[in-house]
Amino acid sequence: MTATTGPAFPFPPGPEGTVPPEYARLLAEDPVSEVRLADGSRIWLVTRHEDVRTVLDGGRFSRHRAATLPGAGFGRSQGPGIVDLDPPEHGRLRGPVVAAFGASRTARFAPRIEAAAEAVLDRLPAGAGTVDLVQAYTAPFAGRVTCEFLGLPGERWQEVTSDVELLLLPRGATEQALKEARGRLGQVLDDLLAARRAEPGDSVTDTLLGAAELTDDDRRLLLHGLIISGFITIRDLLARHLFGVLSSPGLAARLRDDPAVLPSAVQELLRYYPSSNDGLLRVATEDVVLSGRRIAAGDAVLPLVSAASRDPAVFTDPGVLDIDRVADRGIAFGAGAHACPATGLAVTELTVGIGRLLAAFPHVALAVRPDEVEHSSELLPLGIRSLPVVPGPRR
């Protein structure tokens, strides 16, 4: 796929962290469109909800073949992970991960998520000064929860996650620097496996150790991906969602005064402020027709989850943030075999992260205009570089 025709992708983002405006045009006029990447190669973009689910759900698209494609923007510098595999190898590794993130463990762990939020909030300076919520709240909260769920002390979050962003977004880093970062993270994982063997407990790592079908190489691969996704995803999603709450008139007060609304609010925030613009590249393994467009076997296809979450055929007034919406067709965490197995944990973290901040600092407010907040525009992940707020008095 070396043709250079078609518009350049990715598209410019929308204002204030919203999805690219071009997605609305594609949904209406060209739901399966050919675009050109920076290296000149071409891929298909799929935007409609039904078509995106077909790509995510079906067995006619290979994630493994896509993960090994050359080209700019789709490499995985952190090394291969479970999301890069196809059945049956993917299923062999996914089963223990699903067991590790079961609903019962998430429920048992909920008090520790709340305690992690409180521990971070205790260090957040109250008053009229400006605080960056990413550095002071969303990063340490996500880091502590990720570490503790895997069986590491929460206080080690900075050490454990120090190389995570470099591996996910190298931004010109040398191969030697990436090799050293992978080595440091690998040592953390070796030490974690040894520690949990010596002193078993109820962590995700303990569950993986109890899965006889896994080798230690499998466990390292899985833990590697869990640290990266657990930290970066929640850090950035929570920052984006807090921006949405604080920039929407009256929304913070409503969630503060009626915490029962938080779960539905989180589902709508996930639709409106997704963690990424894509659902991971695939390669068609046979000819497929989507919205009347033929995709040939061997073509690369990118299912745009964020575009599908704005599909007017599924969501009324999709460009409006409406926490009373019943978003029961949301695909923020994917669908099919590659759907995130830790969705329950992520939703709990986001719910607790928003609710605890508003309870502790009921008058927290943005310190700048919403259009002055700097959002990142990478395909994966989407985030906020800095979220300046004035916390106000602590309750």
Would you mind describing this structure in some detail?
- The protein is α+β, with helices and mostly antiparallel strands and 395 residues long.
- The protein is 46% helix and 8% strand.
- It has 15 helices and 10 strands.
- Strands 1-2-8-5-3 form a 5-stranded mixed β-sheet. The protein has a 3-stranded antiparallel β-sheet with strand order 4-10-9. A two-stranded antiparallel sheet has the order 6-7.
- The relative contact order is 0.18.
- Residues 75-79 have low confidence and may be disordered.
Alpha-beta classification: alpha+beta
**Shape type:** globular
- Relative strand content: 5-15%
Mean pLDDT: 90
Question: The biggest beta sheet, please?
Answer: 5 strands, mixed
Number of helices: 15
Q: How many beta-strand segments?
A: 10
| Order of adjacent strands in the largest pleated sheet | 1-2-8-5-3
Compressed to H and E, one letter per element, the order equals: HEEHEHHHEHHHHHHHHEEEEHHEE
The radius of gyration is: 21 Å
Low-confidence runs:
75-79
Distance between the termini: 58 Å
Oligomeric status of the shown chains? single chain
Percent helix, as a range, is 40-55%
At a glance:
The protein has 395 residues and is of the alpha+beta class. It has helices at residues 22-29, 49-57, 63-67, 89-100, 103-121, 133-150, 157-161, 164-168, 175-198, 204-209, 216-247, 251-257, 262-272, 305-308, 343-360; strands at residues 32-36, 42-46, 61-62, 131-132, 282-284, 288-290, 293-295, 300-303, 365-366, 388-390.
